[in-house]
Amino acid sequence: QLQLVESGGGLVQPGGSLRLSCAASGFTLDYYAIGWFRHAPGQEREGVTCISSGGTRTNYADSVKGRFTISRDNAKNTVYLQMNSLKPEDTAVYYCAARQGSCSVYAYQYAYWGQGTQVTVSS
């Protein structure tokens, strides 16, 4: 069974950091671009960042540039999202998603999705 599982979410104070993980089972991530999306209550789902299958290309939403870093360890079949200088507006459920080919900003182009992990930034 092909599955993505996110972990690492939680409650953090403004200015704090979290590292999210996206682990794959049932398939290898080597040939997949991985995107992170987030969905906050009352808002549309937002693409946060994406990393190419080889890890050489990344892109970020303007709202997280300079604060978030995506990376991957294909040997561990895992992608990471390091989030620093967190703000209350980063509060959302974060999802990772996989698609064959290059990164895309369009969520519908991703074939596999995790169940999401909640990130809450609050004092």
Task: Using the CA coordinates, give the radius of gyration.
Answer: 13 Å
Shape, please?
globular
How many strands? 11
Quaternary assembly: single chain
N-to-C series of helices and strands: EEEEEEEEEEE
Counted by DSSP, the helix tally is 0
Low-confidence segments, given as residue ranges, are: none
Query: Helicity, in percent?
Result: under 10%
What is the averaged pLDDT score? Answer: 96
Strand content: over 45%
Backbone structural class = mainly beta
N- to C-terminal distance: 39 Å
Tell me what the structure shows.
The protein has strands spanning 3-7, 10-12, 18-25, 32-39, 46-51, 58-60, 68-73, 78-83, 92-100, 112-113, 117-121. Helix content is 0%, strand content 50%. By secondary structure, it is mostly beta strands. Strands 2, 4, 5, 6, 9, 10 and 11 form a seven-stranded mixed β-sheet that branches. A four-stranded antiparallel β-sheet has the order 1-3-8-7, with no helix packed on it. It contains no helices and eleven strands. The model has no long low-confidence stretch (mean pLDDT 96).
